[in-house]
Amino acid sequence: ILCYKFGSIAVYDGKNFNVFNDTNSSLPFHGFYSVTTDKKNTIWAGSFILGVVHSEGEKWILFDKSNSLLKDNMIFSIYVDNNNNKWICTYKAGISIYNEDGVKL
Question: Which of 47, 55, 60, 78 has a Cα at 20 to 30 A from 23?
């Protein structure tokens, strides 16, 4: 997986790159500081102003301060631990932890 700070997310499948951006997919914005995958190969990307998106098939789901317990929309990094928790490092509000039960902390 590659992310372009002011552009798209590109995923290499072993033969080709699939490029996702806000014009050719349901990705709600472009511009990322961080991108990773979890244990289910779900893509997670943190933006520099609009929160976190994750992939569900061809659809992208947005988490931000207005629709989750995420305390800041400026995301610098996302780390996935061995239990598939997503540790989301924000600019002003510390770390949030996301699991299948929702954003924590």
Answer: 78
